[in-house]
C-alpha cells in the first residue's frame, strides 16, 4: 500500500512557493512543550517540514534536526529558506534503525491513506531509539476524505489512531484534542499525538 496520494502531491507541487512561504504569525507553544520532553541537543528527524519554520525553531533551540519533506518542490523551497540540506523522503522509504531521539511529524501523516498508516508508524518506531518520542498531528474525523483543495486526509478518531499505532509497540500514547486551523484557514479539531517507544 502506497503512502502517497497523487492528487495531494500534485497540489503541493503546484502550490510549493506559496505554501512554503506563507506569511502568518506562528506560535510554537506545542513544539516547545514537545522539545521540553527531549534531552538538550537531541537528534530529531522531521517529516513533512514544509517551509521549514519548525526546523528553524528547533535549530535555534540547539537541537540536531534532519529536515525532510515528501514533495520535491516543497523540499527545494525549504532548503532555500533554511540554507541547509532538506532531503526528499517518502514515508514508506524511512529505513533508519535506532537512529533518532525523536521524530517530529506535524500535519503531514494526515495525508497517508488509512490502509497505509500502520506500516508507516512501524517504520517510525524502528527509526527511534528506545525511549524516543514521536509527535504527529491529524485533523480529527470519522472517515477519510478530501478537502476543498482536493487533498486527501485520513481524518481519524482517537480510537482509530490507537489501533493504527499498535499500542504494544509503545510505552505510552498520549492524544490531545484541540481547536485550530490549517492552510484552508477553516476551524479544525486537531489531534496531537505523542507516542514514546518502549525503553
What does this structure look like?
The structure is a single chain. The chain has helices at residues 6-14, 16-20, 29-35, 53-60, 72-82, 117-127, 158-165; strands spanning 43-46, 64-69, 87-88, 100-105, 128-139, 145-146, 152-153, 170-180, 188-197. The chain is α/β, with parallel strands linked by helices and 199 residues long.
- Which class do the helix and strand fractions yield? alpha/beta
Work out the oligomeric state of the chains in this entry: single chain
The profile of the biggest β sheet is: 7 strands, mixed
Instruction: Give the SSE order as H and E letters.
Output: HHHEHEHEEHEEEHEE
Radius of gyration: 16 Å
What's the N-to-C terminus distance? 29 Å
* Proportion of residues in β-strands: 25-35%
Whole-number average pLDDT?
A: 93
- Determine the fraction of residues in helical runs and give it as a percent range: 25-40%
Strands, count: 9
Unreliable segments of 5+ consecutive residues:
none
Q: How many helices does DSSP assign?
A: 7
Shape: globular
Strand order of the largest sheet: 3-2-1-4-5-9-8
Quick overview of this protein structure:
By secondary structure, the chain is an alpha/beta fold. It has helices at 6-14, 16-20, 29-35, 53-60, 72-82, 117-127, 158-165; strands at residues 43-46, 64-69, 87-88, 100-105, 128-139, 145-146, 152-153, 170-180, 188-197. The strands form two sheets. A seven-stranded mixed beta sheet has the order 3-2-1-4-5-9-8, with helices on both faces. A two-stranded antiparallel sheet has the order 6-7.
Amino acid at each position: 500500500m502506497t503512502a502517497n496520494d497523487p492528487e495531494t502531491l500534485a497540489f503541493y507541487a503546484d502550490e510549493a512557493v506559496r505554501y512554503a512561504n506563507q506569511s502568518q504569525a506562528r506560535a510554537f507553544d506545542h513544539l516547545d512543550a514537545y522539545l521540553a520532553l527531549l534531552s538538550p541537543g537531541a537528534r530529531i528527524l522531521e517529516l513533512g517540514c514544509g517551509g521549514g519554520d519548525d526546523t528553524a525553531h528547533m535549530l535555534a533551540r540547539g537541537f540536531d534536526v534532519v529536515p525532510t519533506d515528501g514533495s520535491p518542490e516543497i523540499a527545494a523551497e525549504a532548503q532555500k529558506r533554511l540554507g541547509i540540506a532538506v532531503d526528499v523522503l517518502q514515508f514508506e522509504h524511512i529505513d533508519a534503525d535506532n537512529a533518532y531521539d525523536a521524530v517530529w511529524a506535524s500535519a503531514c501523516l494526515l495525508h497517508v491513506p488509512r490502509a497505509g498508516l500502520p506500516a508507516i508508524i512501524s517504520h517510525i518506531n524502528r527509526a527511534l531509539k528506545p525511549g524516543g518520542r514521536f509527535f504527529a498531528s491529524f485533523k480529527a474525523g470519522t472517515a477519510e476524505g478530501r478537502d476543498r483543495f482536493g487533498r486527501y486526509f485520513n481524518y481519524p478518531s482517537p480510537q482509530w489512531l490507537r489501533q493504527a499505532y499498535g499500542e504494544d509497540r509503545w510505552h505510552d500514547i498520549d492524544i490531545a484534542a484541540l481547536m485550530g486551523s490549517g492552510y484552508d484557514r477553516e476551524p479544525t479539531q486537531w489531534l496531537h499525538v505523542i507516542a514514546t517507544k518502549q525503553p
